[in-house]
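pinning this so it doesn't scroll away 📌
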Amino acid sequence: MTFERLGRFNLLIGGNNSGKTSVLEALQAFCNPEDPADWARIANARNTSSRLFSTHSLNDCLVWMFPYTKQTDTGSSGSIQLSSTGACPVREVKASVQPVFGMPDEEDLRYLAKRPLDSNPATGGTYEGIEIKLDSIRAQDGSSTVAESVTRRFWQDVPFIRRRANSFAFPVAAVLGFEYRFAERCADKYSKLKVDQQKDLLELARMFDSGIESISVASENRRPYLRVEHKDFGEAPLMVFGDGMKRVLFIVTGLVTAKNGLLLLDEIESGIHAFVLPEIMKWLFKAARENHIQIFATTHSLEAVDAVLLSAKETPDEFVTYRLSKEDHLAKRLNYNLLTDLRVHGGLEIR
């Protein structure tokens, strides 16, 4: 699938299982392909129950990120191929996966010594895992490019993923549809917001509850959390407030990571009432422009489409919609004027 003539705000629409979320996953992997923690984060996001209990192993989730073809005897995982032009220094990424048996490297073994695992006698005492091979091409000074080739191994049941230092990481933040339920973990990112950004967040929060007087970071047992001061019932933790406010908090704090890069919003309307969507979208357009952020968002909601259209009225050239089709693997581009004709003048169902 190819996306041409992207805008600052790119809205992905289409039926269920048409690949909208997969596009966001591809963008996230593309921006920092060599960091295994990012691959693990993308894979685990599909396994939404993993925050409570482990339904599937990390390795299973990683393998199923790759194209899968049923064969006569066994399934084979294909390769991932991504490429782009633009400000991101990454130009091309190719990835393939295969099962391996072996031993973690020395640094991993030092971690494992603290939390020993049972080796598999059937494999000669070695660990079972998967190996992801990554070949990437990055832009360097001027018009020159440099090729990199790395291999990352993920061991079955290893309780950690070590980050690898990567000087080529491109800023990217992914805000998933369900993550607002864990908004208490935003305290660290909230503390990094500028004063005017914190003020914007407070005004957005008051759309959901006019009694909110302030939001600040507090600490309990050395763990930071967000504290809300309310005019009616005083100090309260964030957990007592509604999903819409938590969702907006996640989006705003995502700006810290996404500055000068990409902000990925899955199910942009999730948790937010249609009544406040236009104001939030208007703010989001402004924030993206001020922080040099390119947005990719998915939605199933006509109210969300209409809210984004209304917010893009002042800068129509920055907004593009792509309708994904599972049948023909095409992304049909709809600019502001065409989408306005279809929705506002024609009242058509465009999802």
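📌 and the second one:
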Amino acid sequence: MWFTIFNFERVRDVKSQKKNTPYDLYIMVPLLNEENTIFSYVNNLINELNNVDYTINPNIILIDDASNDNTLNNINTIRSATMGIRTNVHVLARQFPNAQQGKGAALNYGLNYISRLNRQQDDRHTIIGIIDADGFMTAKAMTSVIGAFENNPVSMVQTAVGMNRRDFNWLSKMQDIEFLGANSFMQESRNRLGQAIASGNGQFLTLEMALAVRWGNTLLEDFEFTVRGLFKQHRALFLPTAIVYQEAVTKLRPLLVQRIRWCEGSMQCFIKYLSSIITSPHINTGVKIDLSLFLTLPFFSMLLNFANICSILVQFGNIFTKKSLPVIIVFSIVIIFTLMIWLMMAIEYFQNTTDLSIFACILRAWQCIVYNIILSFIPYVAFFYLITGKNSWAKTVHGQ
């Protein structure tokens, strides 16, 4: 309901035409046990970086987080094979006991390395991009991201996220519409409020912001980075026309593990940052409401699921023991309202995807209601993990 308010005012048209200002671009790719996919994804990414606008100096930082497979050997092979090309390839190898402390720690390690390099541009014109090991962006998309920095007074740009092989199975279809439909719709609404939220993959920021903020240690490091940036008056926007494509989680168990991690990370941020968000003089009222709703949602969902189950049981009883017409009317209103909300998500998805009719998009959007019901019980597990202190980083396995 919150984002529906901004349905006709959400901002899709972001100025991103690249001009003549030179930029250094460093794409950081954190890696942990990626031997099965590293060659294809990284080589494809390097090929695209070679073709970004001539005003951009492209670099890629491959950060091995003490993998116990052949990931490090493979990325060293990639570096050797790509010497002399336009894109500079850097390989960093983290070691224990400092390795495998989460994505944020790996990104900070890469940030320290970049800060020591002899760069061509200053900190405001040095852009750091975070693309996961399963991520892919076109040269055109990366060029438009740099153009967004050039045309807008922001410190961070978040791209849209889509799934490669989106039609692999039902779960991959649902994740594609979840990100290119619902998430894009919400992020465009946040553009209207004046502050987007980082989504990790496809997150770009100035070196100036990265050095001032740095990544934290919660399980939702991208949201935490956004909030810490807001406290220091660094603004972010969402660029819907640039899309990073990532591998969908195609099996239910690893999908649940991934979402439990995200949900627990949100709960950690609730405890750590909510009061500071509400009292911050640097955050406007609309953004405060949005961030507060985001952080409250996991806890609210726990109550809502319980209330929904109780309500359904009571109302089914009323159908057979009392007048059924009022119950049917109320249920019909709820169902229609829900379908209308997801109709808006379908329209957003239709605008952001290709090769799908509007009817196919609507059908997928309505299926996403079932998908969300499946995921709605995750907060209970996340809350249990939170209170029992289980907060280790459960990495999503790529190349499933």
